[in-house]
Amino acid sequence: MSRFYITAAIDYANGDPHLGHAFEKIGADVIARSRRLMGDEVRFCMGMDEHGQKVAQAAAAEGVDPQALVDRLSGRFRAMWERLGISNERWVRTTDAHHRRGVGALVERCLQRNPGDFYEKAYEGYYCVGCELFKRDHEIVDGRCILHPTRELQWTEERNWFFRLSAYGEFLRRHLDLHPGFLQPESRRNEILALIDGGLEDISVTRARLSWAIPFPRPTSDGVEQGTWVWFDALPNYLTDTGYPEGDWEAWWPAQLHVVGKDITRLHAVIWPAMLQCAGLPLPERVWGHGFVTLGGERFSKSAGVGLDLGEVIDRFGPDPFRYFLMREVPWDADGNFSWERFAERYTSELANGLGNLASRTISMVEKYCGGLVPDAAHPEIEARIAEALAEYRRSMDALLLHEGAAAPLGPGSAAEAGVPAVGPGKLATEPEGSADLHASLAARVRELAVASALLSPLLPAKLEELWSRLGSARPLPCFHELEGLAVGGWQVGTGEVLFPRPELVAG
Ligand SMILES: [Zn+2]
């Protein structure tokens, strides 16, 4: 069994969870669940980024203590991820005492190993609190940050500690060359290679007058203690969750995969590896910068008033159809769009009429014609297709092309893809010479449904757990390697409520 440590980005505690957050967490969860299906021992960490000016400002605007704000938001995010069926068993908060100690230890380790990488400098520039970054001219349009057009940029003049990021360009270039899989998809890799080749600038890693922060271990020469820049505090969450610097943190570090949005790929593919290299610690194996999901063609934005009420979607359809739709509709390696029209289309054709109908008709036919026992019949004609689907699924999931993996089990040639079972029950069931065909056909369909239940369970965990139990195996959902030879003869099927009610029948 191999270990697989996966992280999703931690979210800023300054607002409620939205579609963009949900897209990333669902994608990371599908990966985590598919690794468990493959037999890996998985550690899946998510959490909250609770320090920084943006959080302090949000708390001030509400007139509450920052700790009270982050406590409340941590609870709300956690509750939302639970409702969506996200299976992270780890939850990190950057205000936790352990994380604060871990960041202090990591920065101290950097300062001791490479003291020349840190220096003081007076700095001035436009600071975007939305990004928690100083912005360069090309990142500013009409006096505003491109990513945060509703926020005022802050002209900031301070004396700060700087990190000599410029010294790491050559190291990072070599690392990316030697490990082509380190940063994916290819489009993100090309962006970052261009950035590195253009020359990296040193970065300010402390903020004066920032009390809602982890204190930087060295005061500036004027004797003032500064706050650690929020990204220097946030990025190490992936490391501190393993227990660093105490205990057996090396059992889980380095992480196998960081899942992040394309807007923060640079932080994860440049600054974080440079920090780790400075500290003499191993780099994560892989960083995946997913795209954005837009709503009706617009990027989701709280400030622009473009939103989708996650709670409402889950109330109406349950978490699984929403998870399935996002993963099928939005390519995990590109951008995509959420629309209710497309949701209704996919829900109807793929879940209600496809998988759901195939399942209910197959199960009711097994009950009606076989006394509820799945016939022990050979079905050689579908084995080649199943082997192909398994290989395609494996290839897609290893490449993190989740949208392709999701399409594999019920793809071309499957009974579900054909819409309805191909066998007419009346004729075959009533003619004795037809019953052998009918039995083989029903066994084949149960076999196919069993494989689909396992392969699609990362997307539709609750629904397919339910389907699996109706198919009547006495065992829990199998691992991937058990699927090829899975025998379904003798299973005792059971019926239940419609798995995917027609959308017009779902209370709106
Ligand atoms: Zn910004």
Report a brief summary of the structure.
With 508 residues, this protein is α/β, with parallel strands linked by helices.
Could you walk me through the main structural features you see in this protein, from its secondary elements to its overall organization?
- There is one protein chain.
- By secondary structure, this protein is of the alpha/beta class.
- It has a domain at 339-505: Isoleucyl-tRNA Synthetase, Domain 1.
- Helices cover 44% and strands 15% of the residues.
- Helix 9 links the parallel strand 14 (257-261) and strand 15 (287-290).
- The protein is elongated, with a radius of gyration of 26 Å.
- The model has no long low-confidence stretch (mean pLDDT 92).
- The structure holds zinc ion (ZN).
- Zinc ion binds next to loops.
Which second-level CATH architecture of the domain at 339-505 applies?
Answer: Orthogonal Bundle
- Biggest pleated sheet: 7 strands, parallel
The first-to-last residue Cα distance is 45 Å
- Which band does the percent of strand residues land in? 5-15%
CATH structural class of the domain at 339-505: Mainly Alpha
CATH superfamily of the domain at 339-505: Isoleucyl-tRNA Synthetase, Domain 1
Q: How big is the Rg?
A: 26 Å
Secondary-structure-based class equals alpha/beta
- Looking at CATH, which topology of the domain at 339-505 would you report? Isoleucyl-tRNA Synthetase, Domain 1
- Averaged pLDDT: 92
Number of helices: 17
Which spans of ≥5 residues are poorly predicted at pLDDT below 50? none
Q: Helix coverage percent of residues?
A: 40-55%
Hetero groups in this structure are: zinc ion
Oligomer: single chain
Number of strands: 18
Shape: elongated
